[in-house]
Amino acid sequence: MRVCIAGGKGGREHALGWLFDRFGHDVVVAPGNPRIPWATLGDPLDVDADLFVLGDDASVVSGLGDRLRAKGRLVFGPNADGGQLEGSKAWMKALLVEAGVPTARYGSFTELEPAVQFLKSLPGPYVVKTDYLAEGKGVLVTADLGEAIADAGAKLAGGAIVVEEAMAGPEVSLFALCDGERFARLPVCQDHKRVGDGDTGPNTGGMGAYAPVPFVGDDVLDRAYDECVGRTLAGLRDRGIDYRGVLYTSVMLTGEGPKVIEHNVRFGDPECQALVPLFASDPYELFAGAAAGHLTAEPVMSHDACVVVSLAAEGYPAAPRKGDPVEGLAAAANLEGVEVFAAGLDAEGRTAGGRVVHVSATARSLPAAHALAYEAVRRISWPGMHYRTDIAAQALEGVTP
Ligand code: AMP
Ligand code: GLY
Description:
The protein is α+β, with helices and mostly antiparallel strands. It contains 13 helices and 19 strands.
């Protein structure tokens, strides 16, 4: 079949294309980037395909799903109505509260004074978020009330904000393939959002991920899917939203049980790069069935583990430097079990974005995948390249992060 990965130009879209190519489908990635083999660099609306899989959040939020469906296309990915889950945190939080989904206490604001009053009423630490799309980079978590107030003021200059109480506990990423009614689960992943080792420094789009996550028990997972995912989908249905596509739920495993940090309306990046190697059978029926509203197949996943290390450009996340020549990609990809997914690379193989490549390593066990990933990373270099050296480290040490 012909499958189009529609919208987006990063490592996630490369990985989705690679997944369908691996099972013999004819793949198009639109637009993609110059280092994705199947990229058109053009508009997905110009592509003819049997199935469209939406890639990035901006495309979903701006209604690419609606436009493709209006042309009679089969689309795995929600319409703009479902996109509000990610496009507006205030909308998402209101839906969670109405649907009885556990999440952090919050307030949404368009003016500073009530936001300050709300912040002062919280015990701290504090969380300040933009209510507009900020690609995972619009969140401050701080114990310092003064810093929270200053950040609220700065973010209000760009639009509405959401203020939350901070939750504590390990974070995991859940991926549900939804057909509007039912959903199928993919293996649980963990991302590493801070730029530095030991979860230090600013938040990023994600510096590395692995799957599956050994420390999450089945009972906790069942509860998280039921209370966080199932109830959200029911809430969407109650609002007349026929949500077909992946629902990516960031969950914090708190002392009071799993709670939603946020929902996203597309795959995680780099979690997607850790999931696609684990598919043990052709995912076409699964995705096409969900897109058609008849999810019948279950995902068939291998028992392997996958570790993804994201390699970032000098200055990421604040101001990534472009134009640095990247060496060693082919040598890394030559290792068995390793795929290098292109994110911020130009046609000449120079840095052209914040996260430049994602090194994805799959092996029989988490320790083996971890060792393989870093062996591959050591083959790649450019001036100013940086990455985390502790992806999956706590899980490997048996520590629940
Ligand atoms: P988000 O973009 O909403 O996923 O937030 C980015 C990161 O900020 C999350 O991965 C969490 O680490 C952190 N975060 C967001 N909301 C909260 C919260 N209410 N409590 C604690 N940490 C949070
Ligand atoms: N991995 C974080 C994200 O995709 O938003």
